[in-house]
C-alpha cells in the first residue's frame, strides 16, 4: 500500500499562502468564452447535466423536471415532468457511444420513483414502481440497475430480471459498473461488489452475486464513477453527484476512490485490494501543527474530495477548495492549486488541450492550464502552485522519489474565469463544438460559447439564407 | 433613422450646392422627393383658408327621406372642433354629389324588388367659400322601412387643406372603405334580422287571415261572397305576395357576394354565416326552423305581430338611427375606426407626407432599420395598412397605393404621387391599375403627352378653376361621361384619365355602380371677389409677397388676386397641349402649383412659351429654399394673423402642430432652431389656443424631444459621455446608478436613443430596478437604471454589480463617476460633440439618428460583404479572413480602434435578425469582451 500525505509540516511558506486565491484581471486573452446564453426553465437547483448526442443535453434538478436543450441554439426542446421529488440520478441508455440504437432512453431516479423517458420517436414517460435514488447501466448486457434498499436489475423492456435481498436500511447510495459484469454499490461506508450473472445454458435466470465488501473508507460513500475497466469512487456527503462513463483511461487494473475526509485510494480492480492511497489533505496526526492547516481542517468540506477526473496520465482531483493533479506513473501529486476557488470545487473536467475546468460553490467557473516547467531545486515554490510529495509510505520504496529532484514539474495556471451564476455552480458539461454548459443552484443554466466562432457561424448562416432567398450575388 | 428627408425637403438647394458634392448620385428609388409645393418656394405648411373650423374632422350625414340632408355626428364629437362651420349646409353639399345610383325596385324582367349591392362612391369636394374641402364617402344602408329599402349616408373627412385631401386620397379612401365595410356588414346583419321578423309577422298575419276567411266561408256557404270576404281574400293575396317578396329580399341579402365581405376582418363574423347555409336560410319561411338554423335570427323568441293590410308610409314615423340600422357593436367598431382615421390624418399635410416618405424609405431598409428606429407608432400604422391591403382587390377598387404593399421599386411610383400635385392622385391610380391600357389610351388620345405634363396640366387646371371661382366639376364616373363632355375645361384631364378604360374591366361583375372617383370642386360665385379670395388664401399671397423680390420676374402678386380668365384657361386646355401647359404654368406660379423640379418637360415648355420666364434652375432653388425663409414667413404670417379672420392659429404654431400630430417623425422645432421668434409665436398662439382642443396622449414626439434634450445635457455635463455611449453602442450594458428615481429615469430615457434594438420590439432598456441584477438581466437589457439604496437589498445589488463588472459599465450619478472600458474611436465624438451647436432636443435627436443611420449602413456593408466572411477560394486560413475583415473595417469603412467593435456588434445584431425565422423568438446571446475597465471622474 502506498500512501502519500500532502500538506504536512514541511510546508515552506505557510504564511505566504494566506490569501492564495489566484485571480485574473479583466484581460483574459486566452479565454475563448466571449458569449453566453442564459437558459431558464428550472425553478430549483439544477444539479445534473447529461449529454444526449452531439448537440443535445438534458438537465435535471431538485424541481423534478428534466429539460432537453439544444446546445447550439439554447433552445428548449422538451420539458419532462415525471417526478414529484428531487431527481437524484440521471443516466442515458444506451449511452453516448451506442447511439446507433434509435430509441434512446433517459433514466431518471428520485426517491419517489424511477422514470424512463424515451426520446425517440416521441418523448414519452414510463413510470416505474421501483424506488431508489441511484441507477446504473450495463451496456454489454443491455440491462440497467436501480439501487435503493435492494438492488434490482431490469432490461430495456422494463422487466424486472433479478433482485437482491434487502441490503441495508440506508440503502445504496451509489452504483457503478465495473468490468467483468460487476457493479460496485456504495452502501454506507462499504463498497459492495456484485457480479451480474446472465442466463447461460446452465443457469436459466439472471442473478446477482455479492463478490466482495470493501471497508476502507472512513465515512459514507455516496457516489461512484466508473470508467471502462476502472472504477473510481468518490464520496460526497449529501447526495449523489452523477454517474458517467468514460472509456479511455489506461489505468490498468486499479480503481480509485476518494472520500470526504481527503482520502484518495487507488484500488486494484482485480483483487479489490488497496493499491495506493493518497490521504492527502487532512491528517489528524499531530504533525500538522501550523495554524494555517488547523484552520483549514476545521471544516471537513475543505478537505473532502468532491470530484475527480482523469486522463491517460493524471487524475485531477477537486479537494476542498483546491485542485490537485495526481500522476499515475509517478504516483504522486505533480501540481496543485490549494485554493483554486473561494469555496468547494464541485466539478472538474479535463479538456483536450491540457486545460482543466473547475466549478465551485462560489459560483465561478475557472479555466486552468497545466503547464510544464523546469523547476530547479533551489527555486522556491511559486505562490499558489503547490507541488507536494511529502511523505511516502514506508512500505513502498518507490523509484519515483529518486527522480523527484529533476523531474519535469507542472503548474496549474489560471487562464480565465467565467462569472455568471449567482450561486454555486453544480456541474458543467463540455461540448467540443458548442462550448460549455454550466448549471447552478440559482436555477439557471448558462451556455458559454466562443464568441468569434459563433459569429463566424452566424455569418455563414446568413449567407446560406441569402443564397436560399436568391439574394446572393457573387462578385465576378 | 432617416430623418434626412425632413431636413432636405425644406432646405434651400443652393445651400447644398455650395458643398462640393462629388459622390455618385443615389439610385433613383432611394432619392428623397422634394416637397411637392416647394417649387414656388412655398411654405410647406398648409395653406390657410378661411375655414370656420379649427381642425380636420369627420362628418357623418344622411339624406333623410323626411328632412333631407342632415348631419348625424362628427368625430371628434366636440363642438369646438367645427366651431361655426355650418354642418347642415355642408351636409347638403356633400349629399348632393352622390352619383351612385342605388337602384332598388322592380327592374324590368324581374318580378320582385331587387336589392343592389352598391359600391361606395368616393368624391372629393371643395367649397372655397367655406374654406372646407372634403373627402366624401357615400354609402347606402338598407332599411326595410325606408323608401326603396335604402338610406343614403355619407362619411366625410373635412379639412381646410385641399392638398391634404387630394394627396391623401388613397389613404383616406382605404381607411374609409374599412369603416364603410364595417357599417354595411352590420347593416346587412340587422337588415336580415329585420326581414325575418317581418316574415314572421307576415306569416302570422297570413295564418290569421286564413282562419278568418275559413270562418267566413263556413259562415255563409250561400254561394256568393260578401264584399268583406273578397276584401279578406285580397288581403290574403297581398300578404302572400308580400311574403314572397320578403323571402326574396332575405335571400338576396343573404346571398351577398361573399368575396365582397372577404378580407375585411371587421366583418369576418358575417362571412361565416354566408358560408354556412345561404340557400337553406333563404328558403325557410317556417319561423321555427329559421330560428334555429340561422345564427342571425337566434334572438329570443319573437312574438309575431299582426300586420295591417295597408303599409303605413307616413312621414311621422320615426326612422331608425344609424346605430339601429347597424348592429351596435359594428357601429362602435366603425366609430373606433373613424376616430382612428381622424388621428391618422391629424396634422399638417407636410407632416403626413414626410412621415409617409420617411416610413416608406425606412421600409426599404428592412434589414437594418430595426436597430435604431422606434417602431412603436410606425407599426401601428403599418398594421392598419396591411389590414387594408387584402381587402382592396376584393372590392374591385383600383389597387391601393399603399406604400408598404409596394415592392421596393414601386415606391418610386408612389413617390411620384407626392411629387406631383394634388390631383395627380387620380392619374396615379390609373397608372397603377391600367398599366398598359393606360399607356395605350394616353398614346392615342393625348398624343405626345408626357404623363408628367398631364399631371401638371391637370393640376393647373384644377388650380385655375378654384381661383377663378367657377363651379367646376370633375367627374370620373361612367355615369358622368355625359357630364364630361360638358365640362370642357377638363377635357384634357379626363381624356388621359379615360374612365372607360378602368371601368370596362370592372363593369362585368358589378350590378350597377362602379367605383367612382370624382373630383369636384365647387366655388360659389361670390368667390370671384378678389378680397374674398385673398382672405381665404392669405398664405399663398403672402408667399408671393415674400418672394416677389426674389428674382421671379414674371410672377407678381397681382397674378394671384386677379386670376386669368377662366374661359381662357379652359379653352387653352382643351385646344392643344402647348397652350395648356402655358396656362397651367401661369396658374401654377400663381397659386402654388406643382412646379416639380424633376418635371423638366413642363419647365422647358414654359421657357419656350416665355410667359413665365422662370429658369428651371431658379425654381429648383426655390424648392429647397424653405429652410431659411420659414422663419421670416412665420413672422410675417404671425403679424398678419391678427388681421386675417378665421386664420387658424394652430397652423402657425409649431408646438401645436407637434402636439396634434402624433405620427409625424419630425418636429417643427428643428427647422426653427435658429429663430427665436417662432418659438415666441408658438407660445403666444398656444396661449390663445386652448390645448384642450387637441387631446393627445403622451406623444412620442415630445418624448423624443425630451430624450434628445437630456442627452444633450448629459453630453455637455459629463466629459466621459463618450465611453458611456460607446458602451451602449457596443452592446455592453450600461447601468445608471443613482438614488433618485427621477434623475435616473431621465438619464436612462435620454441615453436610450443610443441603444440598438434587438428586433422590432421595444428597446432593451430598463428604466428602474431596485433588486440585485442577474446575469440574465444583462442579456436582456442594455441600459438599466439601478437604485442605490442603503438597505441590505441595496448593498446586495451593488455587490452583484461588482461581481458582474465585466459585463457592465457603471455610471454613478451620485458620485459622478463612470467605470467602463477605454474608448479611442472617432465615431462617438461625432455623435456626441460636447461643443455641438445643436441646442434643441429634437434636432439633436435627429442628428443622432442620422449618424446612427450612417453607422447602420456601415454595419450593413460589413455584414453582407460576401468575401469578408466566407473563404474566397477553397480552404483558406481563418487568419486571412480575419485580416480581410480588419482591413475592410479600417480602410473601407474608416473605423478606428473601438469603433470596429461597435460595427461588429451591430453586424451581429443584423445577422441574428436576418437569420431568425421568428423575429424575437430567440434572445440574442450576451456578448462581452475581456477588456479592462477604467474609472472616469469629473
UniProtKB/TrEMBL annotation, chain A:
Chief location category: cytoplasm
GO cellular component labels: lysosomal membrane
WD repeat intervals: 39-79, 338-378
The keyword Cytoplasm is assigned to this record: yes
UniProt keyword Glycoprotein present: no
SUPFAM superfamilies attached to this UniProt entry: WD40 repeat-like
A Pfam family matched in the record: Beta-prop_WDR41
Localization per record: Cytoplasm
Any Gene Ontology biological process: regulation of autophagy
Subunit note: Component of the C9orf72-SMCR8 complex, at least composed of C9orf72, SMCR8 and WDR41. The complex is formed of two protomers, each individually consisting of one molecule each of C9orf72, SMCR8 and WDR41. The protomers homodimerize via an interaction between C9orf72 (via C-terminus) and SMCR8 (via N-terminus). Within each protomer SMCR8 (via DENN domain) acts as a bridging protein between WDR41 (via C-terminus and N-terminus) and C9orf72 (via C-terminus). The C9orf72-SMCR8 complex associates with the ULK1/ATG1 kinase complex.
Function recorded in the entry: Non-catalytic component of the C9orf72-SMCR8 complex, a complex that has guanine nucleotide exchange factor (GEF) activity and regulates autophagy. The C9orf72-SMCR8 complex promotes the exchange of GDP to GTP, converting inactive GDP-bound RAB8A and RAB39B into their active GTP-bound form, thereby promoting autophagosome maturation. As part of the C9orf72-SMCR8 complex, stimulates RAB8A and RAB11A GTPase activity in vitro, however WDR42 is shown not be an essential complex component for this function.
Protein's name in the database: WD repeat-containing protein 41
Amino acid at each position: 500500500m502506498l500512501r502519500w500525505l500532502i500538506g504536512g509540516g514541511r510546508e515552506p511558506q505557510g504564511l505566504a499562502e494566506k490569501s492564495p486565491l489566484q485571480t485574473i484581471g479583466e484581460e483574459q486573452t486566452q479565454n475563448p468564452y466571449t458569449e453566453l446564453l442564459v437558459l431558464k426553465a428550472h425553478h430549483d437547483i439544477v444539479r445534473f447535466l447529461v449529454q444526449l448526442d452531439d448537440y443535445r443535453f438534458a438537465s435535471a434538478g431538485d424541481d423534478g423536471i428534466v429539460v432537453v436543450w439544444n446546445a447550439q441554439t439554447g433552445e428548449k426542446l422538451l420539458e419532462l415532468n415525471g417526478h414529484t421529488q428531487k431527481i437524484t440520478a440521471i443516466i442515458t441508455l444506451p449511452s453516448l457511444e451506442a447511439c446507433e440504437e434509435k430509441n434512446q432512453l433517459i433514466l431518471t431516479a428520485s426517491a419517489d420513483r424511477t422514470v424512463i423517458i424515451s426520446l425517440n420517436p416521441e418523448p414519452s414517460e414510463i413510470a416505474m414502481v421501483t424506488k431508489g435514488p441511484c441507477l446504473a447501466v450495463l451496456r454489454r448486457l443491455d440491462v440497467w440497475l436501480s439501487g435503493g434498499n435492494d438492488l434490482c436489475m431490469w432490461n430495456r423492456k422494463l422487466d424486472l430480471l433479478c433482485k437482491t435481498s434487502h441490503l441495508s436500511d440506508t440503502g445504496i447510495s451509489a452504483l457503478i459498473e465495473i468490468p467483468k459484469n460487476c457493479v460496485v454499490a456504495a452502501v454506507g461506508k462499504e463498497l459492495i461488489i456484485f457480479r451480474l450473472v446472465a442466463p447461460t445454458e446452465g443457469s436459466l435466470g439472471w442473478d446477482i452475486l455479492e463478490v466482495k465488501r470493501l471497508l476502507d473508507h472512513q465515512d459514507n460513500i455516496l457516489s461512484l464513477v466508473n470508467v471502462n475497466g476502472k472504477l473510481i469512487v468518490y464520496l460526497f456527503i449529501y447526495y449523489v453527484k452523477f454517474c458517467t462513463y468514460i472509456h479511455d483511461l489506461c489505468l490498468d487494473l486499479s480503481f480509485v476512490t476518494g472520500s470526504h475526509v481527503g482520502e484518495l485510494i487507488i484500488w486494484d480492480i482485480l483483487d479489490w485490494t488497496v493499491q495506493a492511497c493518497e490521504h492527502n489533505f487532512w491528517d489528524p496526526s499531530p504533525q500538522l501543527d501550523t495554524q494555517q492547516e488547523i484552520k483549514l481542517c476545521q471544516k471537513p468540506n475543505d478537505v473532502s474530495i468532491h470530484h475527480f477526473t482523469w486522463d491517460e496520465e493524471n487524475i485531477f482531483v477537486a479537494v476542498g477548495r483546491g485542485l490537485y493533479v495526481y500522476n499515475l506513473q509517478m504516483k504522486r501529486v505533480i501540481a496543485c492549486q490549494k485554493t483554486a476557488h473561494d469555496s468547494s470545487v464541485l466539478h472538474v473536467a479535463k479538456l483536450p488541450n491540457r486545460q482543466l475546468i473547475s466549478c465551485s460553490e462560489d459560483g465561478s467557473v475557472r479555466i486552468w492550464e497545466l503547464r510544464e516547467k523546469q523547476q530547479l531545486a533551489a527555486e522556491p515554490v511559486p505562490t499558489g502552485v503547490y507541488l507536494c510529495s511529502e511523505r511516502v509510505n514506508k512500505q513502498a520504496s518507490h523509484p519515483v522519489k529518486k527522480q523527484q529532484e529533476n523531474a519535469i514539474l507542472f503548474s496549474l495556471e489560471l487562464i480565465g474565469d467565467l462569472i455568471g451564476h449567482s450561486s454555486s455552480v453544480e456541474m458543467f458539461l463540455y461540448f467540443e463544438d458548442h462550448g460549455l454548459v454550466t448549471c447552478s443552484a440559482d436555477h439557471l443554466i448558462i451556455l458559454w460559447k466562443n464568441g468569434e466562432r459563433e459569429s463566424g457561424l452566424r455569418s455563414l448562416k446568413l449567407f446560406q439564407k441569402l443564397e436560399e432567398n436568391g439574394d446572393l450575388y457573387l462578385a465576378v | 433613422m432617416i430623418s434626412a428627408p425632413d431636413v432636405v425637403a425644406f432646405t434651400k438647394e443652393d445651400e447644398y450646392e455650395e458643398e462640393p458634392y462629388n459622390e455618385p448620385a443615389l439610385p433613383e428609388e432611394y432619392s428623397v422627393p422634394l416637397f411637392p409645393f416647394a417649387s414656388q418656394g412655398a411654405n410647406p405648411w398648409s395653406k390657410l383658408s378661411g375655414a370656420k373650423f379649427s381642425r380636420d374632422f369627420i362628418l357623418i350625414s344622411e339624406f333623410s327621406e323626411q328632412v333631407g340632408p342632415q348631419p348625424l355626428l362628427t368625430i371628434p364629437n366636440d363642438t369646438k372642433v367645427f366651431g361655426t362651420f355650418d354642418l347642415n349646409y355642408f351636409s347638403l353639399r356633400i349629399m348632393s354629389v352622390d352619383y351612385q345610383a342605388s337602384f332598388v325596385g322592380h327592374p324590368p324582367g324581374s318580378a320582385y324588388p331587387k336589392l343592389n349591392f352598391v359600391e361606395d362612391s368616393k368624391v372629393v369636394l371643395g367649397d372655397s367659400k367655406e374654406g372646407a374641402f372634403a373627402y366624401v364617402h357615400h354609402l347606402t344602408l338598407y332599411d326595410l322601412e325606408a323608401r326603396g329599402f335604402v338610406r343614403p349616408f355619407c362619411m366625410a373627412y373635412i379639412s381646410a387643406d385641399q392638398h391634404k385631401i387630394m394627396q391623401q386620397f388613397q389613404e383616406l379612401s382605404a381607411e374609409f372603405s374599412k369603416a364603410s365595410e364595417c357599417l354595411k356588414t352590420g347593416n346587412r346583419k340587422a337588415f336580415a334580422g329585420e326581414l325575418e321578423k317581418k316574415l314572421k309577422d307576415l306569416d302570422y298575419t297570413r295564418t290569421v287571415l286564413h282562419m278568418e276567411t275559413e270562418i267566413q266561408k263556413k259562415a255563409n256557404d250561400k254561394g256568393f261572397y260578401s264584399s268583406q270576404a273578397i276584401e279578406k281574400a285580397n288581403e290574403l293575396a297581398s300578404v302572400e305576395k308580400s311574403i314572397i317578396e320578403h323571402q326574396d329580399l332575405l335571400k338576396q341579402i343573404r346571398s351577398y357576394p361573399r368575396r365582397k365581405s372577404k378580407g375585411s376582418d371587421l366583418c369576418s363574423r358575417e362571412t361565416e354565416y354566408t358560408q354556412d347555409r345561404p340557400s337553406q336560410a333563404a328558403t325557410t319561411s317556417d319561423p321555427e326552423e329559421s330560428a334555429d338554423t340561422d345564427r342571425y335570427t337566434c334572438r329570443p323568441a319573437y312574438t309575431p305581430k299582426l300586420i295591417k293590410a295597408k303599409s303605413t308610409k307616413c312621414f311621422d314615423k320615426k326612422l331608425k338611427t344609424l346605430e339601429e340600422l347597424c348592429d351596435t357593436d359594428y357601429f362602435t367598431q366603425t366609430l373606433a375606426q373613424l376616430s382612428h382615421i381622424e388621428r391618422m390624418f391629424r396634422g399638417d399635410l407636410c407632416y403626413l407626407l414626410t412621415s409617409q416618405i420617411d416610413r416608406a424609405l425606412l421600409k426599404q431598409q428592412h434589414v437594418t432599420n430595426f436597430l435604431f428606429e422606434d417602431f412603436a407608432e410606425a407599426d401601428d400604422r403599418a398594421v392598419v395598412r396591411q389590414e387594408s391591403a387584402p381587402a382592396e382587390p376584393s372590392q374591385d377598387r383600383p389597387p391601393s397605393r399603399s406604400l408598404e404593399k409596394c415592392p421596393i421599386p414601386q415606391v418610386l411610383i408612389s413617390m411620384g404621387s407626392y411629387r406631383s400635385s394634388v390631383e395627380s392622385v387620380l392619374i396615379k391610380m390609373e397608372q397603377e391599375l391600367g398599366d398598359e391600357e393606360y399607356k395605350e389610351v394616353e398614346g392615342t388620345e393625348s398624343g405626345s403627352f408626357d404623363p408628367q405634363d398631364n399631371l401638371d396640366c391637370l393640376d393647373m387646371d384644377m388650380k385655375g378653376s378654384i381661383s377663378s371661382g367657377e363651379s367646376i366639376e370633375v367627374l370620373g364616373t361612367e355615369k358622368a361621361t355625359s357630364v364630361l363632355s360638358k365640362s370642357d375645361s377638363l377635357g384634357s384631364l379626363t381624356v388621359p384619365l379615360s374612365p372607360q378604360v378602368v371601368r370596362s374591366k370592372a363593369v362585368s361583375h358589378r350590378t350597377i355602380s362602379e367605383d367612382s372617383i370624382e373630383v369636384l370642386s365647387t366655388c360659389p360665385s361670390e368667390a370671384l371677389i378678389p378680397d374674398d379670395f385673398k382672405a381665404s388664401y392669405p398664405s399663398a399671397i403672402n408667399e408671393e409677397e415674400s418672394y416677389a423680390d426674389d428674382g421671379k420676374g414674371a410672377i407678381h402678386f397681382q397674378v394671384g388676386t386677379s386670376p386669368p380668365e377662366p374661359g381662357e384657361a379652359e379653352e387653352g386646355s382643351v385646344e392643344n397641349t402647348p397652350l395648356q401647359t402655358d396656362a397651367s404654368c401661369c396658374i401654377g406660379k400663381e397659386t402654388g402649383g406643382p412646379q416639380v423640379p424633376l418635371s423638366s418637360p413642363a419647365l422647358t415648355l414654359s421657357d419656350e412659351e416665355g410667359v413665365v420666364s422662370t429658369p428651371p434652375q431658379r425654381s429648383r432653388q426655390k424648392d429647397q429654399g424653405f429652410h431659411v425663409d420659414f422663419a421670416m414667413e412665420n413672422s410675417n404670417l404671425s403679424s398678419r394673423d391678427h388681421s386675417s379672420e378665421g386664420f387658424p392659429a394652430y397652423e402657425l404654431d409649431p408646438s401645436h402642430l407637434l402636439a396634434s400630430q402624433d405620427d409625424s417623425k419630425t418636429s417643427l422645432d428643428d427647422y426653427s432652431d435658429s429663430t427665436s421668434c417662432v418659438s415666441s409665436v408658438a407660445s403666444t398662439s398656444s396661449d390663445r389656443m386652448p390645448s384642450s382642443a387637441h387631446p393627445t396622449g403622451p406623444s412620442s414626439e415630445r418624448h423624443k424631444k425630451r430624450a434628445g434634450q437630456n442627452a444633450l445635457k448629459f453630453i455637455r455635463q459629463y466629459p466621459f459621455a463618450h465611453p458611456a455611449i460607446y458602451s451602449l453602442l457596443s452592446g455592453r450594458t450600461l447601468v445608471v446608478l443613482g438614488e433618485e428615481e427621477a434623475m435616473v429615469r431621465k438619464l436612462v430615457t435620454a441615453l436610450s436613443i443610443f441603444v440598438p434594438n434587438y428586433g422590432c420590439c421595444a428597446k432593451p432598456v430598463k428604466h428602474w430596478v431596485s433588486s440585485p441584477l442577474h446575469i440574465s438581466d444583462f442579456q436582456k437589457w442594455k441600459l438599466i437604471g439601478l437604485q442605490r439604496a442603503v438597505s441590505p437589498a441595496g448593498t446586495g445589488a451593488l455587490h452583484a454589480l461588482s461581481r458582474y463588472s465585466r459585463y457592465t459599465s457603471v455610471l454613478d450619478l451620485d458620485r459622478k463617476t463612470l467605470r467602463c472600458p477605454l474608448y479611442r474611436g472617432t465615431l462617438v465624438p461625432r455623435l456626441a460633440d460636447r461643443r455641438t451647436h445643436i441646442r434643441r432636443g429634437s434636432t439633436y435627436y435627429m442628428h443622432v439618428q442620422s449618424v446612427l443611420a450612417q453607422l447602420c449602413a456601415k454595419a450593413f456593408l460589413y455584414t453582407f460583404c460576401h468575401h469578408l466572411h466566407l473563404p474566397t477560394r477553397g480552404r483558406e486560413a481563418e487568419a486571412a479572413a480575419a485580416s480581410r475583415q480588419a482591413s475592410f473595417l479600417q480602410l473601407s469603412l474608416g473605423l478606428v480602434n473601438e469603433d470596429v467593435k461597435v460595427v461588429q456588434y451591430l453586424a451581429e445584431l443584423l445577422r441574428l435578425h436576418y437569420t431568425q425565422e421568428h423575429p424575437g423568438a430567440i434572445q440574442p446571446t450576451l456578448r462581452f469582451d475581456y477588456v479592462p475597465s477604467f474609472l472616469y471622474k469629473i
